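hi support,

uploading two proteins for the ticket. first:
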Amino acid sequence: MNLFLVRSMLSVLVGAMLSSSMQEANADDPLVFISAFAAGEEGAIHAYRLDNETGVLKLIHRTTDVEHPFFLALAPNRKFLYSIHAAAFGSKDTEQVAAYEITGHAGQLRLLNRQSTLGSASCYLNVDATGKTVLVANYSTGSVAALPVEESGALGKAASFIQHAGSSVDPGRQKGPYAHSIITSPNNRFAYAADLGLDQVLSYRLNAKTSTLSPNDQPFVRTPPGAGPRHLTFHPNGKHLYVINELKNSVTLFDHVAETGMLIEQQTIATLPEEFDGTSHCADLKITPDGRYLYGTNRGHDSIAAYRISENGRLTLIGIEPSLGKGPQNLVITPDGKLLLCANMPGDNVAVFRIDSQSGMLKSAGTPIAMPKPSCIMLLPQKTRSAVGQQP
């Protein structure tokens, strides 16, 4: 039997399996997009249905025209998905942001276009609240950029580009700038970028209409020396910004002044048990929708640290649970706050946990699902899916 015929038969078989899975999955369950950080056809964006009751994930579709899709971002209207696309991840000026239209209820994606990130090892995407601007952080080249979004959801060329400069105390990891994430403030007036190489959270004024960034009056705040800030998240009340520090395995809390965008450091707390003396590096953090609990990942210790959030935003460690896989890379929490999903990238699996609403502790919802190199999880809430596929 020739190779072409074998591949054709396999394609038909995979399609039939996905179709059967789609029929078995409840159409009312939310969609979950998970990227596979790999080259070629392995570097797909996987679409799953998540059973809110059981925590079971069912694969229903794979989009394979993307390589090394390290990070994903959803438009506020839930009609468009944006992904990193890199034929050679880390190769200067070859990386792009790919824009997709979500065309149906089974995770199908239609490529709209791609635009340059203007950097390399592009590692983070964020869409502003208006859906008019996509922000990107470029790790290796230490820069951030803002790309305009057209009415169709397609991307224009970057309208704003800012190159970070400087270094910090760790000669091995902080000899230059390494922009690792960028997010918008709850009022959409500011953007904040965590730069691992500078030990800084940089603050920018955001003009979403023109997709431009400019330094804020307080241009940056510092994290503890050698901390290596990686990812950022706001408390639902908008009064607090939390930063997970990759190198020092900690979370730093800043109070946030909405009117000016000013950040005021308040607390730094460890993510690892005191007795641990191995090598570990933090990756991601998420907060429950009710603002009561925060979770952060430890890669090396391979665990998820859980914290209770007090009324003033301060954190208290309540437990550290195994991530059920190697190298927990990314987290997402369901809108009802009942489930937490964890992408264990080098462990090649995605684990689902139940969140105890009374204690905040995590409990496995079942055996993790196997998939290659899961790097980012984006959840499409059920209540908004009626608009999927419709033009704005």
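and the second one:
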Amino acid sequence: MMVDPARADYFGPATREEFIMVDDLLVDGDELLPYGRDASNFTIMGRFGNVMLVNGEERYAATVRPGEVVRFFVTNVSNTRSYNLSFAGHDMKLVGTDLSRFEREMMVESLVISPAERYIVEVRFAAAGTYALLNRVQVVDHMRGTFQAAVDTLGAVVVEGPAVEEADALLSSHSIMRTDAVLEAELAEYRPHFNRPVDHELLLTVDIEGLPILVQQFISIDTIYRPPVEWTDGMPNMNWLSTSNEVRWILRDEAVGAENAEIDWRFRLGDVVKIRLRNDADAFHPMHHPIHLHGQRFLVLSRDGVANRNLAWKDTVLVPVGSTVDLLMEASNPGEWMIHCHIAEHLDAGMMGSFTVVP
């Protein structure tokens, strides 16, 4: 669903808009690797695919003219995979995310995007050539704590033909990092809440019982080193054997001890709620979690005690292993809603709670 902005100047000048939906499939030969019959499998790490897709195809392709500025709307619809996307040789202007623009546009070399997140970036293609769309990550050896670079080429942008007539004007506008004065004025209402005490604190952890002893021993060895984000499935056989019968991913309300479906928060319409998410690094198999709130919007106030200086409205946030993230949620949408991890297998293995916003 594409929502056009009401303000004509909401975005800067661009010659075109493109949509990029990244996904992956787990394929065995010509067939999808089977899902669990009675319970979801791959519930420790989530179901990583071995075939990368962009917009449902194995390779992304676009053709532009020199000097064009392209606005990309990027969405991650994968089960579990987070991406680190870039266009070879080009910085991206980071413009917006899930539910708004950023306070200030900024140039980034790459874009980290977890399941359910959306980002808007603008890229200026100055010179003729072929430029790859890359997923550039580091694969970890859990036991040794060593990394290897891994690069997936998801497609390419071909820049060819005569330069666009407005190339000089586009260069000038693209180099300006604009500030969203309307958003800044809106956020002034919420800034008095930034430093007040936390209303709710959730611990993100896991309980694993019933796996074969040998598998549990291998898992304990495999998690001697705990990377902040798992970019790939570092233990596919053990992950495949784990189902939601043995693995229970947990959201735990630290104040009352309620877990997952027991969580039943209640807010009134217009409440401003401060929520702390803490990812347990000492869990049996710690893993990052993209946490999603249904029906509401929030600001990411801080990560590990460091204040966020460039705010935007979001509904999904990636919480790395061992990290603490503070959110400020506006209860703006009445109804019964979920808060959950957007890794599909973690959700199926219990990692969800609920909350109600009443008029």
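thanks. also noticed: The two ends are 27 Å apart (CA to CA).
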